[in-house]
Design brief:
249 residues, alpha/beta, seven-stranded parallel sheet, 8 helices, 45% helix
């Protein structure tokens, strides 16, 4: 069934980090359906190009590592020249380097914090002047159900993702007077390339914990992101929206 977005994002320019695959691509697809121009940002140019082909004319791509401090501003300037000032930012790019606490190398900690938390800080800092000038903006940060319930073997990922919840609330308070809303979405167990690597036993153990007894899809998440990005969600800020089939309540 073709995707339909109930919310109009016509005339908006959205940047989605990690937009080439998984959740990012699902969100991008929904945004394009809703009438937005979409800029996919990611590290892998080939993945981005393939995604843009699927999305058609409304999408452009920028291969970029969001953890590079000096490049975030230049990237945003480039984007606004190409497609106009950014009015929606979806901070979705994330990596995992799982391992038990005692054996985790500091490089595994640093890399995950750098992409999943510092990258969000840099991308957000780069779009805020544009949004402030327009006196309107939507920032949506992708956190995770494990940020709230914990999970063994993911201390780096969870530290970053729960850090994002605090980040969301702090920036929401700072920019509310400028009519910029900042919210987080916490997906549960969603079918993506990241979860496809789980074996049958791990998958079944996961489903056991979900009252709705099924994994989520990228659309379950994308519709909520489209809603938060829309005018209709103008009175929602500083919130964490859980999309997890009841896994965490």
């Amino acid at each position: 069934n073709p995707m339909k977005s109930p919310f109009s994002l016509k005339g908006e320019t959205a940047v989605i980090t990690g937009g080439g695959s998984g959740l990012g691509l699902g969100i991008a697809t929904c945004f394009v359906q809703a009438g937005a121009r979409v800029v996919l940002v990611g590290r892998r140019a080939d993945v981005l190009k393939a995604a843009a082909k699927k999305l058609g004319r409304a999408a452009v791509v920028e291969a970029h590592d969001i953890t590079q401090l000096d490049q975030a501003d230049a990237l945003l300037q480039r984007i606004s020249k190409r497609v106009g000032p950014v009015s929606i930012l979806v901070n979705n790019a994330a990596i995992t380097r799982d391992g038990l606490m005692l054996r985790m190398k500091q490089s595994d900690w640093d890399e995950v914090i750098s992409t999943n938390l510092t990258g969000v800080f840099l991308a957000t800092q780069a779009v805020l002047p544009m949004m402030t000038k327009a006196r309107k903006g939507r920032i949506i940060n992708l956190t995770s159900v494990v940020a709230q319930m914990g999970n063994a073997g993911q201390v780096n990922y969870i530290s970053a993702k729960s850090g994002l919840i605090g980040f969301t609330k702090a920036v929401a308070r700072e920019y509310a007077s400028r009519n910029i809303t900042v919210n987080a979405i916490a997906p549960g167990f969603i079918e993506t390339p990241m979860t496809a690597v789980l074996n049958e036993a791990a998958r079944n153990a996961m489903l056991e914990q979900i009252p709705l007894k099924r994994p989520g899809t990228d659309l379950d998440v994308a519709y909520a992101v489209a809603f938060l990005a829309s005018d209709e969600a103008g009175y929602i800020t500083g919130q964490v929206i859980n999309i997890n089939g009841g896994m965490y309540m």
